[in-house]
Write the structure tokens for this entry.
Amino acid sequence: MAVVTLGTGEQDMTQLVNDNGNTLAAADCPSSGSVFSFRKAWGNFISGGNPSIANSIANGVASASPTAYRPISNWPVWNQNAPQFVNFNTTGGTLVEGPQTMWGTTPLQYEGPGIKNAISVHDANIWEAYRGDRCAFYKKLGRFIPN
């Protein structure tokens, strides 16, 4: 897979292209369930200082187990020594060809009732091949880089 940026300046469009040259996009992504979950967490944070959301919201209406426990129902408190984050993701759906873009490509996208929330909590230090270590390295370099 490759990330391709089309256009210049403010009108750039970034696309994910698979090995066959097909553009991967998501018509229903984020799904309405994912959008609702994120907005609910954001709203809870703004109105009450706690972004936790109910398990039924985190699981979404498409879930086979809408009341199953999700860690986001008890949002992790920040700890500098053990940082965590919440990943708002989705999974499932049916792969279909989307409408042709203005650049002439036809994106492949996931849509339909099979799209489900896949919201999870992760260790921020080890996420994506130890991103925390890379961030710490760049933080140490910061004092040597002029503004």
Q: What stands out?
A: The CA atoms of residues 26 and 109 lie 4 Å apart. The chain has one domain: 2-144.
